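Dear H.,

Thanks for agreeing to be a second pair of eyes. The structure we're designing against is below in token form, covering all 92 positions.
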């Protein structure tokens, strides 16, 4: 699956989610697996309530955190790729 900065993603609406302290815990009813997202990556989850391009996600994170554009983009693409493989996000 090709995922780059133009890819638009959003949350998989089929997951049950709960906030636990600084983390988000998710349950996939489809495959019975639990997932957790720590405080750092929680912001991405908040941003993708509706479809959003990875470039826009990266720009938002750069404005909020002390991170270089190249590092931020690389990490966002890798993280979203992993979420897509686990069907935690959907490609819009």
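And this is the sequence the design step returned. I haven't edited it by hand at all.
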């Amino acid at each position: 699956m090709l995922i780059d900065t133009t890819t638009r993603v959003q949350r998989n609406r089929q997951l049950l989610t709960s906030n636990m302290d600084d983390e988000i815990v998710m349950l996939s009813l489809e495959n019975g697996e639990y997932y957790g997202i720590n405080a750092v990556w929680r912001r991405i989850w908040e941003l993708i309530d509706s479809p959003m391009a990875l470039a826009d996600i990266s720009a938002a994170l750069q404005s909020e955190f002390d991170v270089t554009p190249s590092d931020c983009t690389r990490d966002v693409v890798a993280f979203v790729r992993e979420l897509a493989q686990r069907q935690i996000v959907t490609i819009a």
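Two observations from my side: The mean pLDDT is 92. The beta strands are 8-11, 15-20, 23-28, 33-37, 52-53, 89-91.

Warmly,
E.
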